[in-house]
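From the pipeline queue, job 12 of 40. The input is one protein chain; the requested action is below.

Action: predict structure.
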Amino acid sequence: MNRRPCLACAIKSRVPDDGARDAGSRRRDAGLSFARTRGPQSQRVRARHAVPRLRKSILLFLATLLLAGCWVKKEDGLRMQADIQALQAEFEVVKRAHAEEKAALEQRIQEADRRIAELSQLIEDFKRATGRSAADIGVDIEKVKTQIMELRGQQEVDSHRLEVIERKLSGLKDDLSAAKTAEQLRKEEEARQKIEAAREAGKPRDPLAGIKRPEKAADFYKLAQGLLENGQTEAARLLFGEFLARWPSGEFSDNAQYWIGESYYAEKKFKEAGLAFQTVREKFSKSDKYPDATYKLGMCFVALEMWKEAVPFFAEFVQNHPKHPLIQKAREKLKEAEKRSK
């Protein structure tokens, strides 16, 4: 005779006994506990504690920098870049930790929802099958309700923790954005100051600024000659030019014109030097500086590698000034110029 299956027995077979349920609960609780302790939790804890301290330090430094309104030195800029890099690294750690913890929390919430639905359905099936509550089954139901309440409480705690992590991550993003903004402002200020410095450097300077001109010709000439001897060729040349403008045919005028040529020669401006020496030859043909101007004019052509043009000046010097201290050098340069001009 076939027996009809007992619905109450079937329901009871789906509800584990106290021992099995307690063992299963202990295994699930142990699994949840292990899931909570496993993974990079220690790293997340360190990140959550370390980031606020670093963030406060960076914000304090940035606030001091921006409120002071001063230009950041290069060393401070490098230190700021290092702080930003450290903040970026901490941000990445917290971001990874947040993603891992968020995934774990979402998995636990899904598991809790599944268990709540499963247990709720089991209770409803049992009530429909029996129509009453037995004392021993009632205890199990209360345990199930307690577990459901605990799961819902844990779910609320996890949701709150997730919100806290989201707020911290958002704050860290804001801090990082502020740090990058301050660094950009520092770079812009540094570029602006470089442009200003370049503009100032490009302004024409006055080499004679602060130099008082003497009234007497001899003192004026000595002042210009002293500048030339000290290597201030441009300032000396300008003073010699002023000297010639005031005393064009004075006692030292021929020397002043000659030293203008020497100032150009010292700066390796050989074309300008040659013109100045030629002016000595044209305007002061009776001057003691005439032979020197002739020799230096030949040397200007040598410097310009115009050997053929240099020959007549060395030849004139050798022929007309045989007792001059530069005669030996002039003869050597004449031979070299004649050889190279062929």
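Job complete. The first helix runs from residue 7 to 14.
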